[in-house]
Amino acid sequence: MTSVQVEKKVGGSDAAGSASEEGYQRGLGNRQIQMIAIGGAIGTGLFLGAGKAISKAGPSIILAYAIVGLVIFCIMRALGELLMYRPVSGSFSEYAREFLGPFMGFVTGWTYWLFWVVTGITEVTAAATYVQYWNKGIPQWASALVFTVALFGINLISVKLFGELEFWFSMVKVTAIIGMILIGLGVITLGFSDAGDTASFTLLWSEGGFFPKGIGGTLMTLQIVMFAFLAVELVGVTAGEATDPKKVLPKAINTVPWRIGLFYIGALIIILSVVSWTVFKPGVSPFVAAFQQIGLPAGAAIVNFVVLTAALSSANSGMYSTGRMLRDLALNGQGPKLFTRLSKNGLPTWGTGVSVAMMLAGVWINYQWPGKAFDLVVSFATISGMWAWIMILLSQLRYRAKANRGELPQSEFKAPGSPYTSIFALAFIGMVIVMMGVDPDARVSLYAAPFWALVLGVSYLVLKARNPESFAKPAATAVGADATAKDGEKG
User: Fold this and answer.
1) DSSP letters spanning 365-378
2) How far apart, in Å, are the Cα atoms of 164 and each of 159, 170, 313?
3) Theoretical Cys-Cys bridge with 282: which of 52, 146, 160, 179, CB 3.0 to 4.6 Å?
């Protein structure tokens, strides 16, 4: 909690609330937090995006996922250290504000909000297209409208209901992957189904080797793999509403390695052992291709349902996250005061409502100009997502330095190997951004960044001129830390 938050009052109450309360209801239990963490690491990036990555790198994509998985674990442990120092729903936006300055907090909060608005637009629209698999007569806009309104309604009822829905969304994804792994193992070891005669672990190196496109081809897929993990940091946003954050959040973060190992690396090893990597194409789900090769007629329909669930899960998380980010900005004077209001159920309905309105507008625009209108904006979502990771790592490095000097209390959940692991993760993200500039397919992701930076820069100067106190650098961060420590003891 910054000193600005400690001193500033909004509507007669503490601007940020206590670190343990913040005005929210702690309705997310261990079971829900664990599945939200799992769901954040499993999305359309795996179910659909992996097809393009496989076609570019072959079996070596397994190594790419393993390396990126290590980087993601470094990021999540850095976030975990910050969360145990001060578990707040503003999460990395709040940490950037405290350790990197008001401007960085402002940029991070609004950028992450944009990330989820854009993601919500694309995921709801994608879900509407998946419905047409079963009934092409249903207009895409109608399905998108129904999904958006339904998810918004759920987010207005209670945080517990949001967590419960996300739990079952994640359960569907987890069950599908485990089922695919078990079926694939049966095909490989027992030889049943149409793929039984050719399925073998030797497919991992017999079709042109483990690096059929060379090491360069594998390196160029790292950006695709990184995108698949976007939203894994969402568990940090739940900190302000977790029933026992100091117990639940470390458990969720420590499960990242085995989640990546099982759901990504394990699934890809099995899929690429059942079906030759040469079969996969961009835009085609590797799970669908594998089921077709095995000869299960219902496989495509099952995967379509799972992908639909993954899209709705992402949209649901987006609605949850946007309201919390807008409220955090508003509490710090960096957004409209209207967003500070909570419903009687402790929900930021105004922030969520405005965000959903923008998602609805996006669905309408996508209906009018399908395909082209969102290319630039959608690709920008990947950059904005990685910006959050960069801010997490930089904030953790600054926090650790202050803690080591005795200026702040030490976290109960230190990132192992820090600062070296955080520096490694930062360097890796930098390398991926450079490769995005080299790759014509990914370069468009970088074009929108200067425009967004200009919008934020001008907005920051205007808001700072109107309310300089909210953008003043905290005079004594330790004051906020002490207040937070006392709140944590009470919680």
Assistant:
1) HHHHSTTTTTHHHH
2) 9, 10, 11
3) 52
AA identity, residue 14 = D
All residues at 6 or more sequence positions from 358 whose CB lies less than 8 Å from its CB, including other chains = 117, 121
CA 69 remoteness from chain centre = 14
Nearest to 83 by CA among 254, 228, 229, 226: 254
* 3-490 topology per CATH: Amino acid/polyamine transporter I (1.20.1740)
DSSP 272-329: HHHS-GGG--TTS-HHHHHHHHHT-TTHHHHHHHHHHHHHHHHHHHHHHHHHHHHHHH
Tell me how far apart the terminal alpha carbons of the chain are, to the nearest angstrom: 15
**Averaged confidence pLDDT in the chain:** 78
CB atoms within 10 A of CB 147: 22
Which strand (E) or helix (H) includes residue 254? helix 245-254
Q: Do 218 and 206 form a contact (C-beta atoms < 8 A)?
A: no
Q: Please tell me which of 11-15, 129-133, 185-189, 288-292 the model is most confident about, judged by mean pLDDT.
A: 185-189
**Sign of the dihedral through C-alpha 423, 429, 431, 433:** negative
If pLDDT is split at 50, 70 and 90, which confidence band does 2 have? Answer: very low
- Rounded CA gap, 27 and 29, in Å? 6
3-state SS class at 14:
strand
